[in-house]
Amino acid sequence: MTDAGDEQIVYEIAVVVPKRNLKEENEGCDCVEVLVNELRDVGLVVERVLGLSEEFIKLAAPLETLGKAAAKLQMKKPTHIGIDLQFEWEEVEAFVRQPDGSLFSWCERFQCYHYLIYETVNKKNSDLTLKFDGKEILWEAGESLLQRLELEGIVKQVFPLHDETKRRKLLRSWALNCWDLTSQPIDEIYAYFGTKIAVYFAFLGMYTRWMIFPAAFGLILQLIDFGSLKLLVLPAFFISIVLWASLFFQFWKRKNAALSARWHLNLSVSTSQGYKSLGREWSSLQSSMELIKNLGIDKTEEKKAFQRYEWFTYLKRFRNDAMVILSIICLQLPFELAYAHLYEVIKSDIVKFGLTAVYLLAIQYFTKIGGKISIRLIKYENNENTEYWANSLVYKVFGLYFMQSYIGIFYHALLHRNFLTLRQVLIQRLILSEVLENLWENSLPFLKYSYKKYRAVRVEKEYLKPTYSASICEELEDGLFDDFLELALQFGMIMMFACAFPPAFTFSTLNNITEIKTDAVKLLAMMKRPAPRAASTIGAWLNIFQFLILMSICTNSALLVWLYDQEGKWKIEPGLAAILIMEHVLLLIKFAFSRFVPEEPAWVRANRMKNATQAHDMCSKQLLRTISGGERAFGRLIQRKTPDKTNKTE
């Protein structure tokens, strides 16, 4: 994009087509030449680059081209009076600019590019015959040329390009900055990658900084032998981490609200925009508004139709959730229990470690199968937009991972009550599931890219990079799905079994510091630039983290009971009674924090009220002027003759 006054052209999108073996005599019939001309006609700046085996069409858009596209898309943007209005290029000064000074965010520019390149339609009344390497292609009237070429296999891929200047700046100030481990340039990340990736790194950075307290506390418990005071110190540690987790998520909501206000995001709008990738878009089967529009019924029947649609949607979700839960219980639970039993009876530590490695490899295939089944199920749900589809997928897939990650640990804790074995399992899971997974997810893309990039030109190097996609459903989720899943599983493991292995917080803190840097390097150097996501919160993952806090209160209370009642007499003695009372008190405190700690900072609420007041005052004055002007005009038009032959205006 090039703003007014900028001389440098930044190419942000690339279209990949094969190299031609034959050159068409009539360039007016060559489909690639026609595509290039069509892209230039809509106002895009085009540069063609030849690679080793493909040709790359790089696209840039002047600010005016983006502005006119945004107006045609009826894109809503925040104005200086605090309300979102439909964008108009002629009134560009009325709209608020981004934190980096640009008029459009990366997500908005991406939508404009999508509109411009896929709206290159055949505007003639007749079909056109195009050619490519001797192959004839029929371009029908009113059809998108790029979609036709994608269907014919001529356009291989359309993907976002890295901005070399901004990419190198982020590498220096963020990914390769070893002096500042947790602070991040969130505004620059938002401007470059979009909302959802910026929110993820803001969450990861804040989560890592807040983990310093439980990490230090857990390390003290590991290094110092408290002897008989252990039964008092462990409950104190348990209470502190529950309070810590509850406070963290309340303050995260405040930070999320502050970021949304700083980036001028409307939460209700941004989360409903969904995910549009170049060339594909997921939508629900039939929205409620489409249902009513198709029915064309009166108000009474409309209400009944809405109610039927609502409950039918709930029943579909309940049916799908029940199918997933029953599948987990009937198919995955026996496998998990068999692994846990073998781990308990095997005596050799080396064999146990090898068994855990084989188990973790085997469950990857089970999880992929479960993920594919979940995708098939949610396609029959009437979700409103792509973010609701993605949230439904998150809940179902996390259920599979919850079972495979924790059922074996529950087995050791509930049946055998062996704290030594429980600690060994936790250490092995943390090492194998986090360290090895980080090495795998970062080294494999790097090796693939290093092998392919030899002798390639710059844009071809971008093309050869792997896509930042999810391991289960690329259409609904990008790589953030796997990153959030890794965080959630880590959080559950260190929280639910905190009393059994307090140093887990220290290990996870070090892992998260490494995760920030490796994820940054992965996104900036080893992956294609991801397509932006409009969601401005962490979505369903927040509910999953809250669920894990509740589970941790129950599991740690049970661990303390077993530690106190080692003989298994289960008598209601003062110690056991205190643990049970503590559990109920912590549950009450957890819910109390959600009421007493505001989810928005005071300045965000004040700005929202100020903007609403300004908008109301301006609209009221404009409405009064319109009404007054209308009455005067109406009065001049209605006149009557008086008896003295003079005209009077009523």
Q: What is this entry, summarized?
A:
This protein is an alpha+beta fold and 650 residues long. The chain has helices at residues 31-41, 63-72, 106-118, 145-151, 164-175, 186-193, 195-210, 212-223, 230-262, 267-270, 288-295, 299-345, 349-378, 386-416, 419-452, 458-464, 480-496, 504-526, 540-564, 574-596, 602-637, and strands spanning 13-18, 45-50, 54-60, 76-78, 84-86, 128-132, 135-139, 157-160, 276-277, 280-281, 639-641, 647-649.
Q: Percent helix among the residues?
A: 55-70%
Number of helical segments?
21
Order of adjacent strands in the largest pleated sheet = 2-3-1-8
Number of strands: 12
Distance between the termini: 57 Å
Rg calculated over all Cα atoms: 30 Å
Ranges where pLDDT stays below 50 over 5 or more residues in a row are 267-289
Average predicted local confidence, pLDDT: 77
The description of the largest β-sheet is: 4 strands, antiparallel
Strand content: 5-15%
Structural class: alpha+beta
Task: Show the helix and strand layout.
Layout: E1 13-18, H1 31-41, E2 45-50, E3 54-60, H2 63-72, E4 76-78, E5 84-86, H3 106-118, E6 128-132, E7 135-139, H4 145-151, E8 157-160, H5 164-175, H6 186-193, H7 195-210, H8 212-223, H9 230-262, H10 267-270, E9 276-277, E10 280-281, H11 288-295, H12 299-345, H13 349-378, H14 386-416, H15 419-452, H16 458-464, H17 480-496, H18 504-526, H19 540-564, H20 574-596, H21 602-637, E11 639-641, E12 647-649
Antiparallel strand pairs: 1-3, 1-8, 2-3, 4-5, 6-7, 9-10, 11-12
Helix pairs in contact: 2-3, 5-18, 6-7, 7-9, 7-18, 8-9, 8-18, 9-19, 9-20, 11-12, 12-13, 12-14, 13-14, 13-15, 14-15, 14-17, 14-19, 15-18, 17-19, 19-20
